[in-house]
Every structure is written in C-alpha cells, then in structure tokens.
Amino acid sequence: xxESEIRKLIKLVEESDISELEVSRWGxxxxxxKYPSAVSPSVVSQESEEEGQTIILSPKQEQEKEQSxxxxxxxxxxxxxxxxxxxxxxxxxxETYIKKGERxxxxxxxxxxxxxxxxxxxxxxxxxxxxxxxxxxTAPVEYxxxxxxxxxx
Length: 153
Fold this sequence. Notes:
- The protein is an alpha+beta fold.
- It folds into two domains: 3-70, no CATH class; 76-152, CATH 2.40.50.100.
- The protein contains two helices and ten strands.
- Strands 3-10-8-5 form a four-stranded antiparallel sheet, with no helix packed on it. It has a four-stranded antiparallel sheet with strand order 7-6-4-9, with no helix packed on it. A two-stranded antiparallel sheet has the order 1-2.
- Strand 1 and strand 2 form a beta hairpin.
- The longest helix is centred in the middle third of the chain and has 15 residues, at 59-73.
C-alpha cells in the first residue's frame, strides 16, 4: 500500500466513530487504531520480510518495539528447515529434547518436525543457552520460522 493511501485511512478513522480498521490488499495488511487525543499517532511504515505487512505503530509501540528488538539482535535463531508439525520430544510421554534456560551444543537434537509422516530431527547449529522457544508443542510451522532463540557463548 502506498503511504498516501495509508494516510487517507488514518484520516478516515480519525474523523469517524471507528476505533479500529484493518485492511488487507495483495498480501499486505494495514491496521489502524484510534488513540486518545492526548497522544497523536505517528505513522511508521514497516515492511515485514516474512509476511509483507505494513504496520502502523503509535509512539509508545514504536519505543517498545525498539527495546524488545535490541536484545534479540544478539540472539541466534534456530529456524525450521521445512514445513511441518513441531514436536519438543520424541514421543508424547518422553522428556523434551531441550528446555528454556538449558545449554545446547552444536549437533544436539532440539526438536522434531514431522513432514509427510516422516520424523525429521532438527539439530542445533550453535552452542549456547536456550533463551526462548516461541513455538508451541504440536504446532504447525512454516519454512524459515524461528523455533528457538539461543544466546551464543
């Protein structure tokens, strides 16, 4: 979407009783929320590489986003090499391969991704400590989706 179109949508929301508007066009989304009059919204247009979305952020959201990204820039992402179903353990009754806060070694199995009835073991490509596991057990995952955030040694 062009910036001029986004500005028109913002004006539409400001001048109406609409408190929130979300528009999808050609694989891109714009979501606009009405803010209290004490805070004027600033327009921050950002193209997301993964989803091709345009996002409008308030000044507070923009600041929170910057703060949350700073530590993650130093983290390594173990990403899904395929589309499938994410499993944290080899069987439903077994212990998980790795937990948040545990150390991981290069080549250590961290999860399984089931694709076409084949169980594919995913190994760590870095040595460090697991900081976050943003995927739920048995959740579907996409190619390139972050499975683990690792703080390198």
